[in-house]
User: Fold these one by one.
Assistant:
Number 1:
Amino acid sequence: MTQKYEPVIGLEIHARLKSKTKMFCACSNNTWKSEPNEHTCPICMGFPGSLPTINKEAVYLGRKMGAALGCEIKKFSKFDRKSYFYPDLPLGFQTSQFDEPVCEHGNLQVIVSGEKKSFRINRLHLENDAGKSTHSAHNSLLDWNRAGSPLAEMVTEADFRSPTDVSAFLKEVQRILRLLDISDADMDKGMMRCDVNVSIRPFGQEKFGTKVEMKNMNSFRNIEKALEFEIDRQTKLCNAGKKDEIVQETRGFNPDTGKTFSQRSKEEAMDYRYFPEPDLPPLIITQEEIDALQKEIPELPSSKILRYLDAGIGIAEADALVNDKYVNAVFEFVSEKTEDMKITSNWVLGALSKYLNDNLEYSLVNFNPENLVILIQLIQNNKISNKIANQIFDEMISENKNPEEIVEAKGLAQESDTGAIEIICKEVLEEKSDLVEAYKSGKDKLFGAFVGQVMKKSKGKANPQVVNELLKKLLS
Ligand code: ADP
Ligand code: ZN
Ligand code: MG
């Protein structure tokens, strides 16, 4: 008999904070396009006698990340040395936080497949990054540009029950980091990295099973695939009565085979010999400063999405509306004034997004959202049809013109004058007398064709509602 098992997953996520300089020295933290070892100094290279200074901006960004993740910001916090040897760790230890992290006990709400879920965060601490080694057949090269860059590491509770939970959460964290300018959070550039811990347990059992850890995963897709493989592997072992063969270990993932493999077991686990960093003072923050920081956190994407869903917007659209902060700002501004989220969403995700895709040099910073308000109101008040609105959209945006003026100048205002429209309707019915016969003998579907002809003849200016009413009257 095969038993049903439930996956239990917890995450450790590193984010490179977007401060101008490194965590403990004045070297630039913007090293993405630099030559190797361009941004180094005695402090981040760990020369004897050099002394670190704490980067205020990095601490601020780390705390801001904690606040956005619903954490408690600790009034007292301190740095500790985490000692281990690694060729790209210049000081022989990492400056991290052990028992007094900057933030604790968070909670993030995420929409997973349209459903609201919430995941707890155990802690968030600050530390500095190591350098980067590149190995070839004959030598190893070391680049210390990244050494000393500020990282925030958050550790979640083991609250995830599926790979889908995990990817929804990671995408939400990435989105928040970008929206709040905390980190660029590009996984492929190592600016957001994730260690994934996974175990399984029989449904209904409270006690966790033995976990394995997959370190430094750098794409959402690989994380999902690795988890699927690992859950399957552990389930098969349990079902085969070989539960003991699941051991606490670090496993790697090979994207080519889609399989995980054993890297090192717990017996080889390191003793980091943590002790308080003697060269740095503790981090203290007052309640007033905490309150001020918390006020800086805007409404988060998941809460916006829920509002949009309530207004009848689809989940994919709601999601798209919060991805980019400028697009979202336009949407919020315009929908508040038009009082119609749905039609506003159609314009923002339709014509506006298309324009942005087709004109990559155009920046929304130059866009006057008031013009989109006016355009939508012109439609709402039956002054122009959707078709005309689409026709003038590009001119409105590229020349930053008031759409009302374009309509005026081009004589595009919608014709609601019944008399004028009735004349066109009659003309059409006369021209298409054969179709009128067919319609009257039961081909109801032809009605649409009459409407289309009238709209065409009026160059899209006739009010479709009026056309419909008049045609119905004339044909009855
Ligand atoms: P370690 O001491 O091995 O680093 P931690 O207790 O610090 O383990 O937890 C690291 C991460 O692993 C956390 O995200 C935690 O939620 C998760 N985790 C802990 N135990 C399990 C388990 N049995 N199964 C899955 N995840 C776990
Ligand atoms: Zn430096
Ligand atoms: Mg740990």
Number 2:
Amino acid sequence: MSSTNSQWGGRFTQATDEFVQEFTASVNFDQRLYRQDIQGSKAHAQMLGEEGIISSEEAKLIISGLDQVLADIETNQFSWSVALEDVHMNVESALVAKIGAVGKKLHTGRSRNDQVATDIRLYVRDEIDALSRKITELQQGMVSLASQHSNTIMPGFTHLQTAQPITFGHHLLAWNEMMERDHERLQDCRKRVNIMPLGSAALAGTTFAINRQRTAELLGFASPSLNSLDSVSDRDFAIELSACASLIMMHLSRMSEELILWTSSQFDFIDLPDRFCTGSSIMPQKKNPDVPELVRGKSGRVYGHLFSLLTLMKSQPLAYNKDNQEDKEPLFDLIDTLHGCLTAFASMIPAIEPKIDNMRAAAFKGYSTATDLADYLVRLGLPFRDAHEVVGKSVAYGIEQQKDLSELSLAELQQFYPEIGAEVFDVLTLEGSVKARDHLGGTAPSQVAKACIAAQQRLSTRGQ
Ligand code: ARG
């Protein structure tokens, strides 16, 4: 008989096929969970000691042994072994090597099934906190740029055609609202992540008198989970994080698209500092917005991970199945991708240099105050539909004369509706148009300035 796996080889008479060993191992990617794995094991050992399931001396030895293993890993003095399959068995075997046979008691009353479920939840919880902090940083940058541009006029678009003038600050605050919801979603997801599966053991619980409340408290979980079968098989929380991540990427991709358009010579609304761009090896004039393009591109990969995870879980019977090992690579990659994209955005957004004159000129070009003229006519007593008609004719005339509505003379405007007075020019200017949208959520500079203060307050009272 050749040697079998030392961790579970008791009932085996044949060693694992070398290829199968490689194929089933997860250590190459799940070693990333070592910190959470050790954290979970320390809490488990402490609880076992407190409950008298192992002696308190044994618990102490195990805990200090785990600390030594942690130190070895963090100082690169640890060698990971594929033969030991995964992070859990690598750590446990290193513990036994350090403290001897007592290390073998650590696995009392638990299984790798509840262990891995706990590790991932601890990991995801840490990552949600880090991602949330990044989002806050990004929002702070957006809002502070918005507050400098509450008066900066640009065209607002529908169908990518000039629609009405807005302020650049208002546009940035729209982005901020998207990120606000994203942050809220992450916090909501965190509530369901922060439940402790440990103690569910393989699937049915354990025969030892464990104290799950205590372990949950030691690990900072809100509470222990309520059903052992569900606990070892549930990966909803990972899917939920992927869904949150997909929405964030969708938002970053939309913003990227706008940045890409705005830096083009056709729009020429903003400059992105050179550090976010690259050149072309053949066209010397080029400065390409690589960072937003790459973020836009990476959204596809995150959506893909959401689908991998949904598909991974569909049709799995209760409880744990080895399929679940496939949850980690998509999860890790989407978290890394999101971190990278948020980091890029957090430093890029405050560095946007708006070209104020170009933005204003573009708003001026597209008859963007036509609705203001219609609203003015309504105030003179004309029903909106009729006003729409009058303005349509005025715009057609303006196009023919190559003049903006505000450049037509009073007499020219009166051809279309005789009661128009000189005060019409107050509403036909870009400044008059934005200023008039003076209500909660509107683009008036005074509203944008107020909204910036409110947003800053919201951000400063945020937990993270
Ligand atoms: N590496 C495994 C995973 O990621 C750990 C749990 C293994 N459990 C088992 N019964 N084989 O899911």
